[in-house]
């Protein structure tokens, strides 16, 4: 039972345009959501997070939007840069719990 | 400062053999996590340590899997009688306090395990 779903395994975006990565979750008890970025042969690195009390969090070129009623979140990257090419994992947790539940990832490719 | 390190980076073993995977967390981090990523899958939680104790082992897939942590630092994940379905990248992460997602987890580069 996948509690966190990333339905797009890959996404290709032109450099300078906006990248939008989507994520859905099923567990309404989740109250904290994260995005991690992973380059080949490296571990994932934390990118940005959002608490369920907010619907938007912005950090530079990265913005995460949360729609609790739809159990949906998205990561916007604008403008997209070549260094953004990586696998992006959506993740969710209950702040009272110890573990994070990850999605299966979306491979983002930024083309020139 | 030094990040999370894991060894070996790659391990190839024969079905039925035992393997040990090591994780050195960031110094001072009390929480340590093991995950695995099978081909085409997301990161699957295995076990969480707070200090030397493991309050959440719910992700260990079978009794062939065990882990320990000593001195509040190094952790070893042991897989006994390996099976081909154990082939995956095993990732270790540590965090300062262990508040689930609210406490940023820092990942090591992983150990790629291949069971022939």
Question: What does this 3D model show about the protein?
Answer:
The complex is a heterodimer of chains A (112) and B (116). With 112 residues, chain A is an all-beta fold. In chain A, 0% of the residues lie in helices and 54% in strands. In chain A, the strands form two sheets. In chain A, strands 2, 4, 5, 9, 10 and 11 form a six-stranded mixed sheet that branches. Chain A is globular and about 40 Å long. Chain B has no helices and eleven strands. Chain B has strands at 5-7, 10-13, 19-24, 31-37, 43-50, 53-56, 65-69, 75-79, 88-95, 106-107, 111-115. In chain B, the strands form two sheets. In chain B, strands 2, 4, 5, 6, 9, 10 and 11 form a seven-stranded mixed sheet that branches. Chain B has a four-stranded antiparallel sheet with strand order 1-3-8-7, with no helix packed on it. In chain B, strand 5 and strand 6 (53-56) form a beta hairpin. Chain B starts with a strand and ends with a strand. The relative contact order of chain B is 0.32. Chains A and B meet through strand 4, strand 5, strand 9 and strand 10 of A and strand 4, strand 5 and strand 10 of B.
Mean pLDDT of chain B: 93
Q: How much of the sequence of chain A is in beta strands?
A: over 45%
Q: State the helical fraction of chain A.
A: under 10%
Topology order of chain A in helix (H) and strand (E) letters: EEEEEEEEEEE
Helix and strand pattern of chain B: EEEEEEEEEEE
Distance between the termini of chain B: 37 Å
Give the rounded overall mean pLDDT of chain A.
94
Main sheet summary of chain B: 7 strands, mixed
Derived structural class of chain A: mainly beta
Silhouette of chain A? globular
The number of helical runs of chain B is: 0
User: What is the rounded Rg of chain B?
Assistant: 13 Å
User: Could you name the ranges of chain B where pLDDT drops below 50 across 5 or more consecutive residues?
Assistant: none
Give the oligomeric state. heterodimer
Query: Helical segment tally of chain A?
Result: 0
Give the termini separation of chain A: 38 Å
Q: Give the largest interface pair and sizes.
A: A-B, 30 and 30 residues
The percent range for helix content of chain B is under 10%
């Amino acid at each position: 039972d996948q509690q966190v779903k990333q339905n797009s395994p890959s996404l290709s975006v032109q450099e300078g345009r906006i990248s939008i990565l989507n994520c859905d979750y099923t567990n309404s008890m989740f109250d904290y959501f994260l995005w991690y970025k992973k380059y080949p042969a490296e571990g994932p690195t934390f990118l940005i997070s959002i608490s369920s009390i907010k619907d938007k969090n912005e950090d530079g070129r990265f913005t995460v939007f949360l729609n609790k009623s739809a159990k949906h979140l998205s990561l916007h990257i604008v403008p997209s840069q070549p260094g953004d090419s990586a696998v992006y994992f959506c993740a969710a947790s209950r702040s009272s719990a110890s573990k994070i539940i990850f999605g299966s990832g979306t491979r983002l490719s930024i083309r020139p | 400062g030094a990040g999370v390190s894991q060894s070996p980076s790659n391990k190839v073993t024969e079905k039925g053999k035992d393997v040990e995977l090591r994780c050195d967390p960031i110094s001072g981090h009390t929480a340590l996590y093991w995950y695995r990523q099978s081909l085409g899958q997301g990161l699957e939680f295995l076990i969480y340590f707070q200090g030397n104790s493991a309050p959440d082992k719910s992700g260990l897939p079978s009794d062939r899997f065990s882990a320990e942590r000593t001195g509040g630092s190094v952790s070893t994940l042991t897989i006994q009688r390996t099976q081909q379905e154990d082939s995956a990248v095993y990732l270790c992460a540590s965090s300062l306090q262990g508040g689930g997602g609210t406490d940023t987890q820092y990942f090591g580069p992983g150990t790629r395990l291949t069971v022939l």
